[in-house]
Design brief:
The protein is of the alpha/beta class. The protein has 10 helices and 7 strands. It has 2 domains: about 230 residues, NAD(P)-binding Rossmann-like Domain (Rossmann fold, 3-Layer(aba) Sandwich); about 35 residues. The N and C termini lie far apart (about 40 Å).
Length: about 290
């Protein structure tokens, strides 16, 4: 799709490497100005330098270092982005970690909590920080990275699974809270990516992440995984005016016909399509149990 983000300003967390950097490249290619934020200032500077080689007149790439999991930092990064550009149209919550791997009774509790703070609370803090400005200007877009942990149990990687499921329910809830403010909020499942997170799974080994997940990860590495561009393309779509009215959904970059969703707004707004819901026996063709 040929989608323009010309004149838009985006704040992208974890934008200095992996999928975050790929999303930033796609945003710049679509015409947006961006502020990248992450904890590693050196990687931020390197990413920004490479991106600035491809700017059109009027476009800007800025950076701000900080920690999304800390209230003061989230607020400061948002304020700095607003100072840099004068407005903020798009938030992409990409920053995330797998957290400790192993059975819940064996993992480091502090690291488990830290993963929740980054993946779940950090995303919520960034939303809190950008919402007043978006409401004041009459609209905006929030794009949240999710993943397989939101829709499937992940033994041995519980902090990741819990945080990703939690953030999707927050996306559904926030979308309803801000719908009348012209703000669309959606989550992306980008597919099985060959990034540093995959390296962490393979380094942990089958004893910690389980034989099945480890075997899947080996196969994924060998196949090359899902191209980062698929998730980036969906992020551009959800950040653009082309997706206006699509909100409160968890969308797969690989499997869902997301470019066609504007044609189905009535169905999307009146059903629980692309949402997290409880499955009851009737949903599986069984004659026992209640309907809800």
């Amino acid at each position: 799709m040929n989608i323009s983000l010309k004149g838009k300003v985006a704040l992208i967390t974890g934008g200095n490497q992996g999928l975050g950097l790929e999303i930033t490249r796609a945003f710049v290619a679509a015409g947006a100005s961006v502020t990248l934020c992450a904890r590693n200032a050196e990687l931020l500077a390197q990413a920004a330098a490479s991106l600035r080689l491809h700017l059109a007149p009027g476009q800007r790439v800025e950076t701000v270092a900080g920690d999304v999991s800390r209230l003061e930092s989230a607020n400061a990064m948002t304020a700095e982005s607003l100072r840099q550009h004068g407005r903020l149209d798009i938030l992409v919550n990409n920053a995330g970690v797998y957290g400790p791997m192993g059975n819940i009774e064996d993992v480091d509790w502090g690291k488990w909590v830290q993963a929740i703070e980054i993946n779940l609370l950090g995303s919520i803090l960034m939303c809190r920080a950008v919402l007043p400005g978006m409401k004041a200007q009459g609209g905006g877009k929030i794009v949240q990275l999710s993943g397989g942990g939101a829709t499937n149990p992940m033994p041995g990687v519980s902090a990741y699974a819990v945080s990703k499921a939690g953030i999707v329910r927050f996306v559904e809830t926030l979308a309803l809270e801000v719908k009348e403010s012209g703000i669309d909020v959606n989550a992306i499942a980008p597919g099985a990516l060959n990034t540093r997170l995959l390296d962490e799974v393979l380094a942990a080994g089958p004893q910690k992440v389980g034989e099945k997940f480890y075997a899947q990860s080996l196969k994924q590495r060998a196949s090359g995984g899902t191209p980062l561009s698929k998730g980036a393309d969906l992020a551009v779509f959800l950040a653009s005016d082309a997706s206006n009215g699509v909100t409160g959904k968890l969308l797969s970059a690989v499997w869902d016909p997301w470019s066609e969703l504007p044609k189905h707004l009535d169905e999307l707004n009146t059903t629980d399509i692309y949402a997290l819901r409880r499955i009851v026996p009737k949903d599986r063709g069984m004659g026992w149990g209640n309907d809800k």
